[in-house]
Specification:
Length: 83
């Protein structure tokens, strides 16, 4: 799994192994870890799962640091700005 900062308010996570499961609790832990490294109130994370057919399923999550929750914002989208 790679973490790379794509711009000032977005983190991109690329799942290299198709079999690697990403469920609610893992997303929660991942977002919590990312938020520990930043002082921003909101961080948008895009999860990309690579399949054998090279088709990417992209899910975007928003983490609200102050309210301590995340929500799924979109799926199969490349660029979405919510703020």
């Amino acid at each position: 799994m790679k973490l790379c900062n794509t711009n000032f308010n977005k983190e991109k996570i690329i799942l290299e192994n198709e079999k690697e499961k990403i469920c609610g609790i893992k997303i929660y832990i991942l977002l919590k870890t990312v938020m520990k490294k930043t002082t921003k109130k909101h961080v948008k994370i895009t999860v990309i799962r690579e399949t054998l057919l090279a088709l990417n399923k992209k899910k975007t999550y928003l983490w609200n640091k102050h309210e301590q929750y995340y929500k799924q914002l979109s799926e199969n989208t490349n660029n979405c700005e919510f703020f």
